[in-house]
Amino acid sequence: MLDQKTIEVIKSTVPVLQEHGEKITTHFYQTMFTNHPELLNIFNHANQKKGRQQAALANAVYAAALHIDQLETILPVVQQIAHKHRSLGVKAEHYPIVGEHLLQAMKDVLQEAATEEIIQAWADAYGVIADIFISVEADMYEQAEAQQGGWPDFKSFVIDRKVKESEVIASFYLKPADGKVLPPFLAGQYISVKLEIPGEQYTHIRQYSLSDAPGQDYYRISVKREDQQEPAGKVSTYLHQHLNEGDRLLVSAPAGEFILSKSARPLVLISGGVGLTPLVSMLKTAVREQKGRDVTFIHAAIDSKHHALRAEVDQLAAGHEHVRAFYCYERPAAEDQQYDKSGYLDEEWLQTIIGNKDADYYFCGPVGFMKAVDQIMTNWGIAEEQKHYEFFGPAMKL
């Protein structure tokens, strides 16, 4: 535990971290990867280039400083990050490396403001926080391995089927190469896929939501080909263009805290683009396990050619009176007839669909989309405990 003096020193750095946090974390990653390039086999290079990883770490450091006297308040964030770490293969031996370079980055960026007292206080605080992460993640590794058919790190899977779902999304049905039973997962969770791409110096790992219901003899991921952006998605493009049925992938055990919970309230699932993948899993699970629960599924896509998994959702809506599905097409093509709104989701339209606001809301999609949905929820006065969302990539602020 930290003494009161250390806590006071850490709290005194909150304003500085608010102002210089991203500069510190940017410098941290640069120096750490220079000194330990092997860690590039774990970290997402695209998120580094976009600055998302730096921003996420800056937010985490700021939150730790702000709540250093009540670390239990950040345990939900610890759990979320620990799930990600376990799925990536982060181990206890990585934490001293991170701590050393984070403290050095504070010294380099803050210079004379980083007094010996401040650096020592942060060294003590980092030790406590690192121990929490190491302990939580050790339990997660143990649980992943101990479950029936489980494994701790990565395991070889075979692509049993590859199905084109839209112009940019393909589904991969994955089965264990050793033929063993698959561990269960919770609707909304993800797996990590580990690839060694020819011509690439480092291994690439990406997380993809499981897009089908639990209880199958396969894991299904539905991957958007991210080749029309900068930087282009190397893993998604490689999966689409070079991997086919019969090929193998290294896969982590399922992870993640964005999961469907049981509730008496109606369920509202709102997705944009490929963000529908965890929500389709939730929809199927709710229909099967939460019989009679009212479910409203709302999806936003560019047009019908970019709308994946629609047939599966339509079938559920047609076969269950408690399930309704609505679609918003940003730029519907001339031949598109079966959609409910053109343009963007807006507050007025969502109000006409949802009606009863006393519901549990799950939403996922591009950052801008999620910010817009969250703002609508705020305008409606929806309580925070009714809102559930997940970012594809490092956690950010809405």
Describe what you observe in this structure:
With 398 residues, the chain is an alpha/beta fold. It folds into three domains: 143 residues, Globins (Globin-like), CATH 1.10.490; 99 residues, Beta Barrel (Elongation Factor Tu (Ef-tu), domain 3), CATH 2.40.30; 124 residues, 3-Layer(aba) Sandwich (Rossmann fold), CATH 3.40.50.80. It is 42% helix and 18% strand. The chain has twelve helices and twelve strands. A six-stranded antiparallel β-sheet has the order 4-3-6-1-2-5, covered by helices on one side. Strand 3 and strand 4 form a beta hairpin.
Q: What is shown here, in short?
A:
The chain is α/β, with parallel strands linked by helices.
CATH architecture identity of the largest domain: Orthogonal Bundle
Low-pLDDT runs of 5+ residues are none
* Overall pLDDT confidence: 92
Please, how many helices? 12
Number of domains: 3
- CATH superfamily grouping of the largest domain: Globins
Helix amount = 40-55%
Sheet with the most strands, sense and barrel status: 6 strands, antiparallel
Estimate the strand proportion.
Answer: 15-25%
Give the helices and strands as they follow along the chain.
HHHHHHHEEEEEHEEHEHEEHEHE
Compute the number of strand runs: 12
